[in-house]
Amino acid sequence: MISMREENLRERKKQRRACVRRLRMLLVLFSIFLIAYMVFSYFLLKLMLEDVHIAFLRNFLFHSVALLVWLAVIRMLWSCRRLGRLLFQVLSLVNLYTLYELPALFRIDIAKENSFLRIVFTLMVAGKAALALYMSWSLQRNPQIIYIWKPHSTEADNELQGKAMSPVNFSQKEHIQHDHRLDIRARNRIRACSVALLLYQYGMLVLLYLLMFVFRYYSSDHEGMQFMQRTLLLASLFSALIWSLPAVSLFLYKPWSRWIIPVMWGMELLRLLFTLPQLADVFQTQNYQLLSWGILIVTELLRYLLLYRLLQYFLKDPFVRVYWMRRYHEGIQEDQEL
Questions:
Q1: 109-134 per-position pLDDT tens digit
Q2: Is the dihedral of CA 267, 92, 31, 146 positive or negative?
Q3: Residue among 302, 282, 303, 277 at smallest CA distance from 293
Q4: Where are the chain's structural domains?
Q5: How far apart are CA 334 and CA 332, in angstroms?
Q6: CA angle 55, 59, 61 (to 5 degrees)
Q7: Separation of alpha carbons 122 and 238, rounded Å
Q8: Percentage, residues of the chain above pLDDT 90
Q9: Is the dihedral of CA 299, 264, 71, 16 positive or negative?
Q10: What Rg value do the Cα atoms of the chain yield, rounded?
Q11: pLDDT by residue (tens digit) across 204-217?
């Protein structure tokens, strides 16, 4: 009897450590997003509003500085304090106030070429609110996280063990022998892809920023290169923001991650359709050198080509494909049981 109790206690401690690691992983991702949000929001507001609407700029910067409060709450959650969970949920609700102030941005007259910046900034604010609410929901409902604060809960144990021990039934046409080593290898490759995707997007943003400065230094078409630099930075910023969602979902092994990748490509296509008429108008009205336009076109093509190769290398990986197929059949079985 004593050995059974000790075994159960060790198992609970092991499960709790796994849940703590999962919580801290989410907190690290959320902290990275907050830092990126503060930097990019300042950058976008400075480009849109400049010095004419400095009062509005200060108002939003005040909210950006207020985000530092999140770091203190995240530190409390890192130590698995109950008060940190409560404060995080309160902050996620208070954060919805930023959505209330967004209409004020659309009532301000800004330059036509900055209208796209306004849309990107709106997506950033809405994304931050949605991510904060998702984190708050996870702290309250996710059994793999609330187990931290309910280490002796039988219901939480059953939910965790049910997820870990649930059998998988495949159809006769697609029967796959379940091997935990395959899951481990596939998960490692999925997580490597998510990290590579984030590094690629944000690394490309910094690299293009530096390269365009070099091109402006050696080019005689300073105005043209300045316009190309601005266009490439906005395109890279948009890509970094939208591709952060599949990167985070892949990092968390969400089964819908592979289906959201075509959606992100669709958003990239919409951005191109929205931007091309503006570029055509600039090409007709401004006398920028063809070299500047060539740099813009080649850089954009190269950026998308590298992204496509990265995603194709991941999606065609045999271990990853078998892993997603198994997760798909698990979902079908759960739906049938319900």
A1: 776 666 777 877 888 888 888 888 88
A2: negative
A3: 282
A4: 8-161, 179-338
A5: 5
A6: 115
A7: 12
A8: 6
A9: negative
A10: 24
A11: 887 887 787 777 77
Query: d(Cα 243, Cα 304) in Å, to the nearest integer?
Result: 12
Single-letter code of the amino acid located at 62 = F
C-beta atoms surrounding 104 within 10 Å? 11
CB atoms within 10 A of CB 198: 21
Task: Write out the two tokens for 132.
Answer: 């904060």
SS (H, E, C) the chain: CHHHHHHHHHHHHHHHHHHHHHHHHHHHHHHHHHHHHHHHHHHHHHHHHCCCCHHHHHHHHHHHHHCHHHHHHHHHHHCCCHHHHHHHHHHHHHCCHHHHHHHHHHCCCCCHHHHHHHHHHHHHHHHHHHHHHHHHHHHHHCHHHHCCCCCCCHHHHHHHHHHHHCCCCCCCCCCCCCCHHHHHHHHHHHHHHHHHHHHHHHHHHHHHHHHHHHHHHHCCCHHHHHHHHHHHHHHHHHHHHHHHHHHHHHHCCCCCHHHHHHHHHHHHHHHHHHHHHHHHHHHHHCCCCHHHHHHHHHHHHHHHHHHHHHHHHHHCCHHHHHHHHHHHHHHHHHHHHC
How many residues comprise the chain? Answer: 338
